[in-house]
Amino acid sequence: MTETIALIKSLADRYGRTRDALMPILQGVVEEERYLSDVAMTEIARELDIAAAEVYGTATFYSFLDTVPRGKYVIRVCKTITCDMHGKKRVIEKIEDLLKIKLGETTQDKKFTLLTTNCLGWCHKGPVMLINNTPYPDLNEDKVTEIIMEYIRK
Ligand code: FES
Questions:
Q1: Of the candidates 154, 63, 136, the residue with the CA atom closest to the CA atom of residue 94
Q2: Does the CB atom of residue 58 touch ligand 1 within 6 A?
Q3: Which is deepest, 2, 23, 91, 109, by most CB within 10 Å?
Q4: pTM, whole model, 2 decimals?
Q5: What is the DSSP code (8-state) at residue 112?
Q6: Tens-place pLDDT, residues 25-51
Q7: Domain boundary among 61, 85, 112
Q8: Domain range spanning residue 48?
Q9: 83 CB less than 6 Å from ligand 1?
Q10: Do 105 and 135 belong together in one domain?
Q11: Within this chain, do residues 17 and 85 fall inside the same structural domain, yes or no?
């Protein structure tokens, strides 16, 4: 908790204490702690002198700003139409199979979380997934197996 408070103070020192600093501070906390806890959101509101509801509203509006704990590697498979037509369903099923979790879940060892996301701007190379910030385009069952196995070994 004190670490979270110290982190937010240092992010506010870096990005400022105006409304414009909200987004970079939220991102900074997610980067460091992998999600936004209630403590973090309350502290950001206090630091920027804005309503906690505003912080919460911004955090939940952007699906990339997680408000629940996630795994070390967050896999986000694009669910938008082009990737959908190119077989995102099979890709998701393959990942579920490999990691023994369902969409929306985190593995017991907290290593992986499997989610979907909206269009990532790689439609011409769908299906696409992100693992943390790295995009993996042109997926099929074999390719996704290879990639996930590599992460399992990490
Ligand atoms: S539809 Fe999947 S990246 Fe655009």
A1: 136
A2: no
A3: 91
A4: 0.73
A5: E
A6: 999 998 888 888 889 999 999 999 999
A7: 61
A8: 2-61
A9: yes
A10: yes
A11: no
